[in-house]
């Protein structure tokens, strides 16, 4: 079975968003909660995963993560709400 990659958005306690990529969203979310994720989520505790999308390659996921990180908040919210 081929490995799949995911781009995800977390909502933080400070009502901000964090975007990242992984091959296991729940495992990565747990790492963020335990303070082993990104520096941003150590300072801004995540509350929940609010969006995720599957990709077939790591390259595609990284490109989408970069695109999302550069979006203004309103565009991230549109993505989350569909």
Structure, explained:
This protein has helices at 25-33, 39-43, 58-69, 73-81; strands at 5-12, 17-22, 46-55. With 82 residues, the chain is an alpha+beta fold. The longest helix has 12 residues, at 58-69. The chain has one domain: GIY-YIG endonuclease (3-Layer(aba) Sandwich), CATH 3.40.1440.10. A hairpin with a 4-residue loop joins strand 1 (5-12) and strand 2 (17-22). It is globular, with a radius of gyration of 12 Å. The chain has a 3-stranded antiparallel beta sheet with strand order 2-1-3, sandwiched between helices.
From the structure above, extract its key features.
82 residues; alpha+beta; GIY-YIG endonuclease; 3-stranded antiparallel β-sheet
What fraction strand? Answer: 25-35%
Which CATH first-tier class would you pick? Alpha Beta
Assign the CATH topology. Answer: GIY-YIG endonuclease
Chain-averaged pLDDT: 96
Shape: globular
Strand order of the largest sheet: 2-1-3
* Main sheet summary: 3 strands, antiparallel
SSE string, helix = H, strand = E? EEHHEHH
Q: What structural class should be given to the helix and strand makeup?
A: alpha+beta
CATH superfamily: GIY-YIG endonuclease
* Helical fraction: 40-55%
CATH architecture: 3-Layer(aba) Sandwich
Counting H and I runs of at least 4 residues, what is the number of helices? 4
Q: How is the secondary structure organized here?
A:
Elements: E1 5-12, E2 17-22, H1 25-33, H2 39-43, E3 46-55, H3 58-69, H4 73-81
Describe this structure in a few short sentences.
With 82 residues, the chain is an alpha+beta fold. It contains four helices and three strands, in the order E-E-H-H-E-H-H.
């Amino acid at each position: 079975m081929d490995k799949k990659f995911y781009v995800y958005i977390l909502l933080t306690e400070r009502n901000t968003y964090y975007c990242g990529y992984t091959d296991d969203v729940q495992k990565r979310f747990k790492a963020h909660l335990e303070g082993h994720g990104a520096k941003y989520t150590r300072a801004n505790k995540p509350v929940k995963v609010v969006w995720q999308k599957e990709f077939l390659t790591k390259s595609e996921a990284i490109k989408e993560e970069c695109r999302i990180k550069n979006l203004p908040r309103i565009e991230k919210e549109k993505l989350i709400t569909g």
